[in-house]
Amino acid sequence: MWSQGREAEPFLHYSAGMNDVPGINASNLQQWFESKVGGLGGPLTYTPFTGGHSNLTYRVTDPTGRRWVLRRPPLGNVLATAHDMSREHRIISALADSGVPVPGIIGLCQDPEVNDAPFYVMDFVPGVILRSRSEAEEHSIEARQKMGHSLIQTLARIHSVDVEAVGLGGLARQGGYIERQLKRWQRQFVDATSRDIPQVLAVHDTLAARIPKQQGVSLVHGDYRLDNCMMNPEGPVAAVLDWEISTLGDALADVGGIISSITDQVSGANDLASRSEGFPTADEIREIYGTFSDRNLEHLDFYVAFNYWRMTCIIEGVYSRYVAGVMGEIDDATVKAFGERVVVLADLAAETAATLP
Fold this sequence. Notes:
CATH architecture of the largest domain: Alpha-Beta Complex
Strand content: 5-15%
Number of domains: 2
CATH superfamily of the largest domain: Aminoglycoside phosphotransferase (APH), C-terminal lobe
Radius of gyration: 20 Å
CATH topology of the largest domain: Aminoglycoside 3'-phosphotransferase, Chain: A, domain 2
CATH class of the largest domain: Alpha Beta
Distance between the termini: 39 Å
Structural class: alpha+beta
Order of helices and strands: EHEEEHEHEHHHHEEEEHHHH
Number of strands: 10
Strand order of the largest sheet: 1-2-3-4-6-5
Shape: globular
Number of helices: 11
């Protein structure tokens, strides 16, 4: 994603006079930006960011040093519902005055004649995105503790948003969230995969038979974790990012998601920033969230199992897109690692689901 300070290494820097920027129609975008922000004073420069595996993200800079962030769907044929630019734009715009930290919105363009696909642009938010343990350990343990506490407190704040008051009451069906998710990701897994991973369908059936009663209706981020937030180096969350699969539903799915994201059973998980000292453990996540939310956490393990399963389905889709070549040139080792991660997550989902009452 995007950050100031230590950030993911970009692929290359491109200027508007060049014609080979992947996913960018530079001349058309120059005109679009001029109409929205004005005073560009010369060609824009585009910096694609690595680190994300879904929608494509670019830092956009004008000659005076002003910066924005552009988001667009992946190149090629993709699952449309997972890459809806208007949906991301709508959610971030609605949260502007909610107390949830989000970037300011510059504009949405749904005309494919401009940049070959819908896109939206938002303000550049200074801060850091922490993915690796080494990046996290550049900050003091005290700062990491503040970051971790703020991360979970911000999640509870997202779940406390009155969706009707901010204009998101019609974003999706308000009931049956887990049922909808099980149906959606099973379908997308079947549509995306070209491999035989039988435990995925078996876990689906186990979860479908044990769904806890949904506690109210919340805005659910759907992929909430440390590296999907811009962090202030001194601690607080500066902006919550990557709202592409957000919807209305069961808040505990997000809590189970952030717990499942720090498992040490997936290859490389111990090198994640969130595993470094100072960031909360699974038990501490439960405790902090429980402090800021009155939801009953008795069945939280169900949501952990659900998230292992859901991530299996999502990452299989990413793996399939890598294999198909629609996410740009990716080295074989990365593709193989994604394929292996799917199998590990599928096994974790099956093991966790087997312990549910």
